[in-house]
């Protein structure tokens, strides 16, 4: 029947602002109707959509009313009745606080979408109805195969055609076969066919078909082979450059060879890019990613980092960043020159590449060995220079924070302009809350004496103290506390602030705040300071004495109180005053709790802590018989539990009964070398204790 008319009806639904950009979002619905000759409704279809109207010219001085009218003039689908709503949304956009740094941080940087590569586009237009003709071309010579696959690629680049191509097993099978057999013969052919499968890999639901034809494994082989070819080309070019004399004829030959090399390189990078992009898509599945790791994907990607093509580098760094979240992949990156090759990309003019490189370095910086490598290759001054870049400041600061955690590298910050920049940032914050990364790195760096001196230059300490006391900023006071621990000129600068700090030590203040102020005061071992006057003027003795009572405060605060008492006791007059106040019995009572605390730490995971506790407990046991018996009993209990756990675990592993005489590789923990098998601890041992293990693997402890 003759169709006469087709009409579209557009209905505007909701109007809203864009979540991150200065733009309006218009939601609409299109109702398409096809009318017959008589004007009757024959066929209808509804489709929802949205239109984004960007307001690039919107500024604080913009006339919102006039701009709203202009929006309605330009966007005809919005009815005039919605003018007040448009004005209201524009006013909201005009006054919405924008945070460029934050928006840059939150945005996801992805590799640029693939576009038709040079040399693979055809003048003719492909048709989905002629796919069988294109398949026939895949059975001809290389030129015909290139033409046939290029026509199929035209179709595959339109997502609407993928479903139909998916069901054409003949086409996909032929493409996979040609790729398997001929990829070494033609870079163009390999690039086109992998591109076709890349189009499928862009959608998770089509990953199955790509895996079915083992395209991922083929791509791994292609990448590995091409990287070997690249090395061979470079070696050949190097030999020609070395051997070519300075005469015109050979120089022209050499220039010709160089041009050929660059042409080959450009095509190879197209092939590498499409192959790696396909692998990146397939790596959404962690099982597939594990297979890639087993085929050494990390080493291949790191090898590509020496290239200069920026889009290829964006793709490779994106891939490495994705892989780096797993420990095994991070360890693989540590074994090859990953950090060295990334260092040359910092800084670079390509904004996305720089951002991705910093994100990858941040992931790697959780490893202490890789942090050391970053310092070794000279990244510290490069990262410091990025603190002035609004787009990358946050990432650079996070990496610098990780580096600043290591005592080996704290002193190296002195030789950069990092600390002056950090102090300037602190100053510029005014009364706003300081970013966590900024104050954290300052706290770490303040633990180094030279850094602390640099921070106090000029009015540095004055600015820090003024802000900390005004805002009662615990983290800033923690930084000040770290500065105060260093002997020399820095410590004497605090004399002017002793009164301010002492005034903050009150029961009604937050404990965390008092802890930092008290810790700072306790660090001020200054001979000329009249501590007696300070204690009296600010009535600190009662506070110190109250905090020594068991359970009156957290352990950290009690520790600082003890240190503070030690500091002020250097003043003889203060020592006498404290003795008269009755503070000494409180200290002794506190000391009596120490062995129990040390016993708890005796089994700590940290070997150094265990060693210190053992040595201290041995001394206590030597001078106090009662505590000696308790300590010995606790050691016995712990080691006997270890023995029981070991027996039970071996019973679970072995079906046959566990026999003591057959296998005991940890006897040194429990027994001396001479019979009878007696457990020995510390300086003395129990009267006589034997652990008997019967043939039925039951353990019994007998005290004689």
TrEMBL record:
<protein>
    <submittedName>
        <fullName>Kinesin-associated protein 3b</fullName>
    </submittedName>
</protein>
<dbReference type="InterPro" id="IPR008658">
    <property type="entry name" value="KAP3"/>
</dbReference>
<dbReference type="GO" id="GO:0016939">
    <property type="term" value="C:kinesin II complex"/>
</dbReference>
<dbReference type="InterPro" id="IPR011989">
    <property type="entry name" value="ARM-like"/>
</dbReference>
<dbReference type="GO" id="GO:0044782">
    <property type="term" value="P:cilium organization"/>
</dbReference>
<dbReference type="GO" id="GO:0007018">
    <property type="term" value="P:microtubule-based movement"/>
</dbReference>
<dbReference type="GO" id="GO:0005930">
    <property type="term" value="C:axoneme"/>
</dbReference>
<dbReference type="Pfam" id="PF05804">
    <property type="entry name" value="KAP"/>
</dbReference>
<dbReference type="InterPro" id="IPR016024">
    <property type="entry name" value="ARM-type_fold"/>
</dbReference>
<dbReference type="GO" id="GO:0019894">
    <property type="term" value="F:kinesin binding"/>
</dbReference>
<dbReference type="InterPro" id="IPR000225">
    <property type="entry name" value="Armadillo"/>
</dbReference>
<dbReference type="GO" id="GO:0035869">
    <property type="term" value="C:ciliary transition zone"/>
</dbReference>
């Amino acid at each position: 029947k003759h169709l006469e008319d087709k009409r579209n009806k557009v209905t505007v639904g909701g109007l809203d602002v864009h979540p991150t950009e200065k733009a309006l979002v218009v939601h609409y619905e299109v109702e398409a109707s096809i009318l017959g000759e008589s004007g009757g409704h024959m066929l209808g279809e509804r489709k929802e959509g949205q239109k984004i109207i960007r307001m690039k010219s919107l500024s604080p001085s913009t006339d919102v009313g006039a701009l709203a009218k202009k929006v309605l003039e330009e966007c005809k689908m919005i009815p005039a009745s919605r003018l007040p709503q448009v004005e209201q949304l524009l006013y909201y956009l005009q006054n919405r606080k924008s945070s460029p740094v934050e928006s840059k941080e939150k945005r996801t940087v992805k590799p640029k979408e693939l576009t038709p590569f040079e040399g693979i586009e055809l003048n003719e237009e492909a048709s989905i109805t002629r796919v069988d003709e294109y398949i026939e071309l895949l059975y001809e010579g290389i030129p015909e195969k290139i033409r046939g696959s290029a026509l199929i690629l035209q179709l595959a680049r339109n997502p609407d055609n993928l479903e139909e191509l998916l069901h054409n097993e003949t086409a996909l099978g032929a493409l996979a076969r040609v790729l398997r057999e001929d990829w070494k013969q033609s870079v163009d052919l390999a690039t086109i066919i992998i591109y076709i499968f890349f189009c499928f890999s862009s959608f998770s639901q089509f990953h199955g078909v790509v895996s079915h034809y083992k395209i991922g494994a083929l791509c791994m082989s292609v990448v590995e082979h091409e990287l070997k070819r690249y090395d061979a080309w470079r070696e050949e070019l190097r030999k020609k450059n070395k051997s070519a004399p300075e005469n015109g004829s050979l120089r022209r030959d050499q220039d010709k060879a160089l041009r050929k090399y660059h042409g080959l390189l450009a095509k190879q990078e197209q092939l590498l890019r499409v192959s790696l992009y396909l692998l990146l898509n397939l790596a959404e599945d962690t099982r597939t990613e594990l297979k890639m790791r087993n085929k050494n994907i990390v080493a291949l990607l790191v090898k590509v980092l020496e290239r200069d093509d920026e889009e290829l580098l964006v793709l490779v760094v994106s891939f490495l960043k994705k892989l780096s979240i797993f420990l095994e992949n991070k360890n693989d990156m540590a074994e090859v020159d990953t950090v060295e090759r990334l260092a040359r990309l910092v800084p670079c003019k390509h904004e996305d590449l720089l951002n991705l490189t910093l994100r990858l370095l941040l992931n790697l910086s959780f490893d202490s060995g890789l942090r050391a490598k970053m310092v070794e290759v000279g990244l510290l001054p490069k990262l410091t220079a990025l603190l002035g870049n609004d787009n990358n400041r946050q990432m650079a600061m996070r990496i610098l924070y990780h580096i600043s955690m290591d005592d080996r590298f704290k002193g190296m910050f002195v030789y950069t302009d990092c600390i002056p920049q950090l102090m300037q940032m602190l100053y510029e914050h005014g009364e706003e809350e300081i970013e966590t990364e900024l104050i954290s790195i300052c706290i770490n760096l303040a633990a180094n004496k030279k850094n602390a001196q640099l921070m106090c230059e000029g009015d540095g300490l004055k600015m820090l103290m003024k802000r900390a006391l005004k805002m009662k900023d615990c983290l800033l006071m923690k930084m000040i506390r770290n500065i105060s621990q260093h002997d020399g000129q820095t410590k004497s600068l605090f004399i002017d602030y002793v009164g301010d700090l002492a005034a903050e030590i009150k029961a009604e203040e937050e404990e965390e705040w008092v802890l930092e102020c008290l810790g700072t005061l306790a660090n001020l071992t200054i001979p000329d300071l009249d501590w007696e006057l300070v204690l009296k003027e600010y009535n600190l003795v009662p506070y110190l004495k109250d905090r020594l009572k068991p359970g009156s405060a957290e352990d950290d605060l009690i520790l600082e109180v003890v240190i503070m008492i030690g500091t002020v006791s250097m003043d003889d007059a203060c020592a006498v005053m404290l003795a008269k106040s009755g503070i000494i019995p409180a200290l002794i009572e506190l000391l009596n709790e120490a062995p129990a605390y040390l016993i708890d730490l005796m089994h700590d995971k940290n070997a150094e802590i265990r060693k210190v506790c053992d040595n201290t407990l041995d001394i206590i046991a030597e001078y106090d018989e009662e505590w000696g018996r308790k300590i010995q009993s606790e050691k016995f209990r712990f080691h006997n539990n270890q023995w029981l756990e070991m027996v039970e675990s071996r019973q679970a592993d072995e079906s046959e009964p566990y026999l003591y005489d057959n296998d005991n590789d940890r006897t040194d923990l429990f027994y001396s070398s001479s019979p009878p098998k007696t457990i020995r601890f510390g300086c003395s041992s129990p009267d006589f204790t034997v652990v008997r293990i019967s043939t039925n693997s039951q353990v019994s402890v007998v005290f004689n």
